[in-house]
Design a protein that fits this description.
It is a single chain. By secondary structure, the protein is an alpha+beta fold. Among the domains are: about 180 residues, Aldehyde oxidase/xanthine dehydrogenase, a/b hammerhead (Aldehyde Oxidoreductase, domain 3, Alpha-Beta Complex); about 200 residues, Aldehyde Oxidoreductase, domain 4, CATH 3.30.365; about 140 residues, 2-Layer Sandwich (Aldehyde Oxidoreductase, domain 4), CATH 3.30.365.10. Helices cover about 25% and strands about 25% of the residues. Helix 6 packs across helix 7, helix 11 packs antiparallel against helix 12 and helix 18 packs across helix 19.
Length: about 800
């Protein structure tokens, strides 16, 4: 605990002034307060990281490999260095220390390639110049002699006898537990006896499923500004998801102590997991320290596709058994995730995929295996709902298949097998908070269906945008069939498997201009999730002040952890709440010392801070905060942790690996032109338990955003990698399609609030769960319309027409 103690108290018998009626603090927890950055963003006035500018700054550029797997025979930078306007060209040999790799968990990613490249688009050289186009032209003059090597692109080529090793001489802690060096991590989950349980099944259904590689597709490209300091250090302004994780990886490469690498969060234009790994951070710092000038790097969209990790593509095999009355008997599954050339978050993705592979269902006997591969495909890592998204696509397809084989309604079949509070996860961990899976399905099914084939009643005024194909004007209603599909999913909240998941908050309370003001300082990365809004709401609720200032996030305060895993409102919100509570107690102690003899309630009553005043729980005002504080300040910085978790057993997968679970259910309504293979998603309704809606408007926005990303991977989003060369074929928004406003349907949301007693305010992390079930719901609706099996994402026209 650090902080500035209050000044010495005045005489205990002092009488407080301005004792008017107490009033509730506005814009606290549970209210839909507006985002402080909202207006600036919609008017185009918000400063993103790519907007930063510094006098006399240079522009950095990264030269990337044009092949996926090759030896680097030589690099010739002479012509690039001779280009007018170029200040520096760096390769691996110019790195300042012996620390030349970085990584979230496994430090296997080179700052710049040395000896070989392992994937298409790997950074090889850096250029700093006085203009961005000068830097690009100079980089194009660098001559690299590659000797191409065979590529590893799937499980067969990765584990074949004599397969090329993506990483030779591995020493990471996973290598002793995997069957092949090209497997990053393996996690089995064994509970009960699946083979014996299968004998009790009246029906057994199996299926193979393929989930495509999805891009986070954030609109703000990777960017940042590095400014060399007079002390030999560097100030880095960057869009990221985890300032302190970046710092931990950057400082050793630069050969600087962490206190000399000062990081400040700049405006972030979306993240969704893609900014959890480093991109241009080290590169900008290297160039700034080498040239002695500020260096700005901004990726264009082509570079961005190579500059961050993507969602793991996956192949999944599932088998379910059920009795004739609809009870699941067992589950067997095998999940193969392609992690690409470097580990990134692959071990954690494996842990999620395996531990959540059963879905939100009660199944006693399971046999699960999940692995992540090393390959020469693009690196894959964190993306919204990681691991759980791929599994949900497969197990929900299975639920429909089993229900159909039993002749049962797919929703009722799910409800019959739904987990509830007290159910054991396949890891043996009890679900110790509400798990309203059956209720969410009931709610989403009960929502009114949209009118069918709306264009038929519109006559000449029919809007072509309501038809499959939209403005392409290819469909006029013939051959269009409606389908309805359901899905439900389960996602863990927070970091798992024994990770020390904590956050830090500094809170200062003082009087400014006669009014009490709270200042909140955390290192939380605001990436669009609304944390800055919620932190102010928490401070108002706990401290009873109207004026709250949110300090810019930087590394001058302790770590807030990553803005990922639906954890920030839970963990950093919990840290802000905890620090505010301690600040409140110090303020009340100060009040007791000042006014303790004025009123007995100071010693006997439950005291609250509301409306800028100290009040009893009965509403009686004892003093104003301005009187209590005067010119003193209470300033504390504290860490806060959720309940501990533990690693999964490497042989059985048993263990209390997660701290909380979140649940969402979707109903998709689609209309499909079966002749042309065109799909129009009419509605994508969602019901989700959020525990407690701290900001209801933001909650609905998060649910609708996650739903839309799930829609994208269902019908359009996929990074296409050539299976022969491992090169990316579509690194642009021309060829990689994401949903626009014309593709996004109505998304009605039903919010359920069942408090988790273990969480601050009873809240539940919300950002990822809707990304899980929206995808399989859309696929289920298309299957319902067409009768096709459709076991791959995304669904393309040729999958529907057979052409």
């Amino acid at each position: 605990m650090t902080g500035t103690p209050p000044r010495a108290a005045t005489a205990p018998g002092r009488t407080p002034t301005n004792l008017t009626q107490g009033g509730k603090t506005k814009a606290g927890i549970g209210e839909s307060t507006l985002r402080p950055d909202g207006t600036l963003k919609v008017t185009g006035e918000f400063a993103y990281s790519s907007d930063m500018w510094h006098e006399d700054m240079l522009w950095g550029f990264t030269l990337r490999s044009t092949v996926a797997h090759a030896e680097i025979r030589s690099i010739d930078t002479a012509e690039a260095l001779a280009t007018p306007g170029v200040y520096s060209v760096l390769t691996y040999d110019d790195l300042p220390t012996d620390v030349k790799n970085y990584g979230l968990e496994i430090q296997d990613t080179p700052v710049l390639a040395h000896g070989k490249v392992r994937h298409h688009g790997e950074p090889v050289a850096l250029v700093a110049a006085d203009h961005p186009e000068t830097a690009r032209r100079a980089a194009a003059k660098i001559k690299i002699d590659y000797a191409e090597l065979p590529v590893v692109t799937d499980e067969a080529s990765a584990t074949a006898e004599g397969a090329p090793l993506v990483h030779e001489n591995r020493t990471d802690h996973h290598i002793g537990h995997v069957p092949h060096p090209n497997i990053v991590h393996r996690q089995p989950i064994i509970r009960g006896d699946a083979d014996e349980a299968a004998k009790k099944a009246d029906v057994i259904v199996s299926g193979e499923y393929v989930f495509g590689m999805q891009d986070q597709a954030f609109l703000g490209p990777e960017s940042g500004l590095a400014v060399p300091g007079e002390d030999g250090g560097v100030d880095l302004y960057v869009a990221t998801q985890w300032l302190h994780s970046d710092l931990r990886q950057i400082a050793p490469v630069l050969g600087l102590p962490e206190e000399k690498v000062r990081m400040t969060l700049s405006g972030v234009g979306g993240a969704f997991g893609g900014r959890e790994d480093l991109s241009m951070q080290i590169h900008a710092c290297l160039l700034a320290l080498r040239t002695g000038k500020p260096v700005k790097i901004v990726y264009n969209r082509f570079e961005s596709f190579f500059g961050h990790v993507h969602r793991h593509p996956a192949k999944l095999w599932y088998e379910h058994g059920a009795t004739k009355d609809g009870k699941l008997t067992h589950l067997k599954c095998r999940i193969v995730l392609d992690g690409g050339a470097y580990a990134s978050a692959s071990p954690a993705v494996v842990g999620n995929a395996s531990s959540l592979a059963v879905g939100p269902y009660a199944v006693e006997d399971v046999d699960i295996e999940a692995i992540a591969l090393y390959s020469n495909n693009p690196p894959c890592g964190a993306m919204r709902g990681f691991g759980a998204v791929q599994a949900c696509f497969a197990y929900e397809a299975q639920m429909d298949k089993v229900a159909r084989k039993l002749g049962l309604d797919p929703v009722e079949f799910r409800q019959l097998n739904a987990m509830e509070q007290g159910t054991l996860m396949p890891t043996g961990q009890p679900v110790d908070s509400p798990a309203p899976v059956a209720e969410l399905l009931r709610r989403v099914k009960a929502m009114p269906l949209p009118p069918e084939q709306q264009w038929l009643t519109a006559g000449a005024g029919a809007d072509v945008r309501a038809l499959p194909g939209g403005l392409s004007n290819t469909t006029h209603g013939e051959g269009v069939v409606r389908g309805v599909g359901y899905a439900v999913g389960i996602k863990n909240v927070g970091f798992s498997e024994g990770f020390d998941d904590y956050s830090t908050a500094r809170v200062r309370m003082e009087v400014v201009g006669g009014e009490p003001v709270a200042t909140v300082h955390t290192a939380m990365a605001e990436v669009g999730q609304g944390g800055v809004t919620v932190h102010a709401q928490i401070a108002r609720t706990e401290l009873g002040v109207q004026q709250v200032t949110i300090q810019p996030a930087d590394t001058q305060v302790g770590s807030a952890g990553s803005t990922s895993a639906s954890r920030q409102t839970y963990v950093t919100g919990g840290a802000v709440k905890n620090t505010c509570e301690h600040v409140r107690e110090q303020v009340l102690d100060l009040g007791r010392r000042k006014f303790g003899t004025y009123h007995p309630a100071w010693a006997t009553a439950e005291l609250l801070l509301e409306g800028g005043k100290v009040v009893t729980d009965g509403g009686e005002v004892l003093a104003t905060l301005a009187d209590v504080l005067e010119d003193a300040a209470v300033d504390l910085e504290l860490e806060w942790r959720h309940r501990p978790t533990e690693p999964f057993d490497l042989r059985t997968g048993q263990g209390n690996g997660h701290v909380q679970y979140s649940f969402a259910a979707h109903r998709a309504v689609v209309e499909v032109d079966t002749e042309l293979g065109l799909v129009k998603v009419i509605e994508l309704a969602c019901a989700q338990d959020v525990g407690k809606a701290l900001n209801p408007l933001s909650v609905v926005g998060q649910i609708q955003g996650g739903t839309t990303q799930g829609l994208g991977v269902a019908v359009m989003e996929e990074i296409i990698v050539d299976p022969k060369t491992a090169k990316v074929r579509n690194p642009s928004f021309t060829d990689y399609l994401i949903p626009t406003i014309l593709d996004t349907p109505t998304i009605p949301v039903d919010v359920l609030e069942l408090a988790d007693e273990h969480a601050p305010y009873g809240l539940r992390g919300i950002g990822e769960a809707p990304t899980l079930s929206s995808t399989p719901a859309v696929l289920a609706a298309i299957r319902n319309a067409t009768g096709l099996e459709l076991n791959k994402t995304p669904v393309r026209p040729e999958h529907l027409t057979g052409t």
